[in-house]
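Hi team,

As requested, here is the filled-out complex form for the 1,3-dihydroxyacetonephosphate run. I kept the field names the same as last time so the parser does not choke. Let me know if anything looks off before we queue the next batch.

— J.
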Amino acid sequence: MRKKVIAGNWKMNKTLEEGLALASEVVNIAKDEVPADVNLVMCIPYISLAAISKIAGDKVAIGAQNVYQKESGAFTGEISASMLKSVGVKYVIIGHSERREYFGETNQQLADKVNIALANGLTPLFCCGETLAQREKGIHIDFVNTQLTEGLFHLSPEDFKKVVIAYEPIWAIGTGVTASDEQAQEMHAKIREHLASKYSAAVADEISILYGGSMKPDNAKGLLACKDIDGGLIGGASLKSRDFIDIAKSY
Ligand code: 13P
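And here is what came back:
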């Protein structure tokens, strides 16, 4: 049975005080309203991790939005996986398209980040997804497969099974344009096929693949009902406790 994951990505939003307020709303509502088999995660700015992980309780896991690929040392401004672990972080987003685009993160760097996250017992939320131009050229499936191959396929099957994948078409992120249920399901099935070709159908069947890109309470039900969609990575709608919880309840 694949794990169902609803993860919020706050991106660069919320001061500590604002974040504490939002997180405590989510924590309070989630314990009464979110089904037990749905894993809720909030991926929040570094500065809030320590304080918010103290109030998160059992129902909500805390995630970071990035990690540096070295264990420690002279890397001014960076944060290591062991530091994340030390403040109660369980998940870490790796390879979000914004990091790939604005910070030049390469598949090789991301593979190193995945390794260091796993070595520290963190669950990588590994992102992949194509641009609109790539989709229009018909190269989106190959592009996403290459991201997965170069970022993840060095892992042993045992380690690979600890990863959660998020398919986030770049054209759907923050645009209000969601992939249709059919477009998303098609891509998730292709991703699972690609995982099976490297590992096995049984391993591919165990991997949770989340959809991300303008997921909202009014479109979540259709997306989450798709056979190969195992949850969501939610940006804008995770900044409102009611919307985030309503998405989690759509399962
Ligand atoms: P939106 O839900 O705001 O489109 O963002 C999606 C995303 O990038 C989550 O990582």
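Two things worth flagging: The pocket of 1,3-dihydroxyacetonephosphate is lined by residues 9, 96, 168, 173-174, 212-215, 233-237 (CB under 6 Å). The first helix runs from residue 16 to 33.

Thanks,
J.
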